[in-house]
Design a protein that fits this description.
- This protein is an alpha+beta fold.
- It has 3 domains: about 220 residues, BirA Bifunctional Protein, domain 2; about 90 residues, no CATH class; about 90 residues, Rossmann fold.
- Helix content is about 40%, strand content about 20%.
- The protein contains 16 helices and 20 strands.
- β4 and β5 form a beta hairpin.
- The structure holds adenosine-5'-triphosphate.
């Protein structure tokens, strides 16, 4: 599993999917760039989501709100108080939650260390099992695990009313150093502020303090009345949005799983008060089905229903995915009550209500939200698709078995040789198909190597132009997963590709 994760990171880099940000300067922590193939895969995931949410639902419309918002937005939403100075005020659930993350991170490191010990022991024992050595190693493992358990148990009991200072104190008391750095100094948690600040205005005295949005949802809430009126929307209805969000995460790690700049795909569904649980269940099912439609395997998904709820929620669940480092949150489905609309009403002094003609009544709608990280979706799809296969002849191949609808390039056209007019025919095929599909051309190296390269890029089809093409206008089409090749007429290509890659 650890190896798989390493392969994912290096494959993403080698094949032009993801690079560390500003790598010439040695990168920027937890910030990444999507390269030529990554940007296509990411765009296709976004479109797949948008189509399912907006195009397929008559009562859901889109929005593209600005990243910069009036600073009062974040007072109303609770972010300013909740995410600031965690050591001063300890009553907020979001802070407890951050403590949770810290503990979880810590426990995971200890676990990883324990697992490494076990691995080492296994490698060392091999056939000649040495009992004494095993016991020593085992004792060390047990020690790590016991400490791990103790932290979790104690934090589990105390998280209700403790804060990060207690986490720090606890860690000091247990005298555990960070297994990665050896450091016993966890004071840096004191400094963190989850939101990135910036300034609007040129001169220092007139500048206004702003934040980069830590979630896209608030752009939807503040536009609720605008969209409802201009779109003549009737409850229940939804507003969907994709876009960047920024969080100064204290434990940013695991590649694109937890980034400081990331993209969310969120939808806020406005419903009658009292009907929110029905819609909460509806969206849980609908969203899980969307994930399953990609074919990554039912066994890789599970729900995690929250017991501890954020201040704004009356029900919440995560859809968790089996990432290379275990089951982790991929998407959140939250019943947010009327918390956000009421808060914006209070802070802005504007009415954010809805007149329900059927009930002949004004009310503040309740909200059920679905929120999925685009980058986490990318990681889920990418890591699940990366396979190392042993072929019949004993050789191996690396293949990225992406769902065809998401593949960056749908087909590559390969002239068998660089002469006899074959490249020209290959170009003609591309000219014809590029209106409908992302196409690639490759004439370098032997055709077998070109197939392998396309396999590693996740391209579902390779079309090979050979000498027979000159005679009868047929080509071979090779399928990525089965490696099966069929001889087909050039005129049939469009239909064959379309049947597999259309959303
Ligand atoms: P986590 O528990 O992993 O910190 P969260 O509960 O804070 O996530 P939400 O605020 O519910 O996350 O955000 C919704 C979705 O946005 C998450 O399910 C996740 O897919 C994505 N997301 C949140 N934080 C990050 C991040 N730092 N990097 C990448 N994706 C993120």
């Amino acid at each position: 599993q650890e190896d798989l994760f390493k392969n994912v990171v290096s494959h993403a880099k080698e094949y032009g999917f993801i690079f560390p940000s500003s790598e010439v300067y040695d990168g920027l922590s937890a910030v990444y760039d999507y390269a030529q193939n990554g940007v296509e895969l990411k765009k296709n995931i976004r479109e797949y989501w948008w189509k399912a949410m907006v195009q397929m639902h008559e009562n859901i419309v889109g929005l593209d709100a600005a990243i910069l918002m009036h600073p009062t937005t974040w007072k109303a939403s609770g972010h300013v108080d909740a995410f600031n100075d965690p050591l001063i005020d300890n009553k907020d659930s979001k802070k407890r939650y951050r403590a949770d993350v810290l503990i979880e991170d810590y426990a995971e490191k200890i676990n990883q260390k324990a697992e490494k010990e076990i691995e080492k022991a296994r490698a060392r024992f091999g056939e000649a099992f040495n009992e004494e050595e095993f016991v020593t190693t085992n004792a060390r493992v047990m020690e790590y695990k016991a400490k791990n358990r103790e932290i979790l148990e104690r934090m589990g009991r105390s998280l209700g009313n403790e804060d990060l200072a207690d986490v720090k104190a606890l860690i000091e008391e247990l005298e555990i150093a960070d297994p990665e750095t050896g450091s016993r100094n966890w004071t840096d948690v004191k400094q963190f502020n989850l939101m990135f600040g910036t300034k609007l205005g040129a001169s220092a005295e007139n500048a206004m303090d702003l934040y980069l949005r830590p979630e896209t949802a608030q752009g939807i809430f503040v536009n609720f009345a605008n969209v409802q009126k201009s779109g003549r929307m009737k409850i229940p209805f939804g507003i969907a949005q994709t876009g960047k969000a920024f969080r100064n995460e204290i434990v940013a790690r695991q590649f694109i799983f937890r980034m400081r700049e990331f993209e969310q795909m969120e939808m806020q569904f406005f419903v009658r008060p009292g009907e929110e649980m029905k819609w909460y269940e509806y969206w849980k099912t609908t969203r899980l089905n969307w994930h399953l439609s990609l074919g990554l395997g039912r066994e890789n998904y599970r729900f995690h229903d929250h017991e501890k709820l954020a201040h704004y929620a009356n029900a919440a669940a995560d859809i968790e995915f089996n990432f290379p480092f275990g089951f982790k949150e991929l998407e959140g489905i939250h019943s947010r009550t009327d918390f956000d609309l009421k808060a914006h009403e209070q802070f802005s002094g504007r009415k954010l209500q809805y007149f329900d003609a059927e009930l002949n009544q004004n009310y503040t709608p309740y909200v059920v939200e679905t929120s999925v990280g685009l980058d986490r979706m990318f990681l889920a799809v990418f890591s699940n698709s990366l396979k190392e296969e042993t072929l019949e002849d004993g050789s191996t191949r690396t293949v990225l078995q992406l769902p065809s609808v998401l593949a960056p390039t749908k087909a590559a056209v390969l002239p068998l040789v660089k002469k006899d007019g074959l490249p020209e025919i290959a170009r003609e095929i591309i000219e014809d198909l590029k209106w409908d599909f992302n196409m690639a051309y490759d004439e370098k190296d032997a055709v077998g190597r070109r197939y392998r390269r396309q396999d590693a890029l996740g391209t579902p089809f390779c079309i090979t132009v050979d000498h027979q093409t000159l005679e009868d206008k047929t080509v071979t089409i090779r399928h990525r997963d089965s490696m099966k090749q069929d001889r087909v007429a050039i005129s049939e290509l469009k239909g064959i590709i379309e049947s597999e890659v259309s959303m």
